[in-house]
Amino acid sequence: MTLILTQFFTTIITTHSICLQVRVLSGGGGTCKCALHVGEEHQNRGGTLHGGLTCTLVDAVSTWALMATEEPVAGVSVDLSVS
């Protein structure tokens, strides 16, 4: 991983990762590969991954991928739809 990405993963996303319990497996070149064990705290009443968490994961991990470039790109999600 690039130095910027390494610094980003060890500082900024630490709190977010703890909340989501997401593990960043790799990243670089505009990609980010993560893992999440879906526990009870992540599930809806039907026992599957809660839709709100799905949306949060898409938003967070796609932002991390944008940061995983030689020249990190900052962005703000203005429209995100998950179904």
Automatic annotation (TrEMBL):
<keyword id="KW-0732">Signal</keyword>
<feature type="signal peptide">
    <location>
        <begin position="1"/>
        <end position="17"/>
    </location>
</feature>
<dbReference type="GO" id="GO:0047617">
    <property type="term" value="F:fatty acyl-CoA hydrolase activity"/>
</dbReference>
<keyword id="KW-0378">Hydrolase</keyword>
<protein>
    <recommendedName>
        <fullName>Thioesterase domain-containing protein</fullName>
    </recommendedName>
</protein>
<dbReference type="InterPro" id="IPR039298">
    <property type="entry name" value="ACOT13"/>
</dbReference>
<dbReference type="InterPro" id="IPR029069">
    <property type="entry name" value="HotDog_dom_sf"/>
</dbReference>
